[in-house]
């Protein structure tokens, strides 16, 4: 099964995708992480993408297509797309040779999303995620797992988050309507505890 997880930043897509990947062996493909990897590896694409990402802007499609092409090429059991497609052009590109079976929309208010995202941190070394609201590291600024430094993503400051949320509504609403018209859309409340959200997703997917 190929599913798409969709929702504003902070709705918990990444967390839910990780659990689904572990449970069903579906490959988690997240364009945000793939782009951040390119930045870390200092590739030409990464350096170009960084300027857009730091401003909360979408990276131009031609760069994003390059990174998803590879990721989509070797899927075995299924996949969970996270962060792609974000606009109609990306959707058209994807649908040329790929079928999305179901789309899960994780619904969360803007206020909750801003509060959650601006509290997000992660380890520079092992990438473990933390949140100062509900999953703080034991020692401030230090990773519990590897002792690495815990930092905030460059685009997780409030101004960029608000811009990303606005962009989400502007660019992605059409994608959501498209899947709703195709009877593939499932709406899940993202303000519930993680395990309840997961249960509701699995129930709705009927897997
Ligand atoms: P995310 O981790 O999903 O919040 O994505 C972080 C940033 O990566 C976004 O604000 C965009 O700049 C960029 N990005 C991720 N996915 C896409 C995409 N499908 N199209 C364009 N830009 C993207």
Quickly describe the structure.
This protein is an alpha/beta fold.
Question: Can you walk through the features of this model?
Answer:
The chain is an alpha/beta fold. The protein has a domain at 2-108 and 171-205: Rossmann fold (3-Layer(aba) Sandwich). Helices cover 48% and strands 16% of the residues. Helix 6 packs across helix 7 (158-181). It starts with a strand and ends with a helix. The mean pLDDT is 94.
CATH fold node name of one domain: Rossmann fold
What would you give as the CATH superfamily of one domain? P-loop containing nucleotide triphosphate hydrolases
Tell me what portion of residues adopts beta-strand conformation.
Answer: 15-25%
Q: What string, H for helix and E for strand, traces the elements in order?
A: EHEHHHEHEHEEEHEH
What are the SSEs and their pairings?
Elements: E1 2-6, H1 13-24, E2 27-30, H2 31-40, H3 44-54, H4 61-73, E3 79-82, H5 88-95, E4 102-107, H6 110-118, E5 120-123, E6 129-131, E7 150-151, H7 158-181, E8 185-189, H8 194-205
Parallel strand pairs: 1-3, 1-4, 2-3, 4-8
Antiparallel strand pairs: 5-6, 5-7
Bound molecules: adenosine monophosphate.
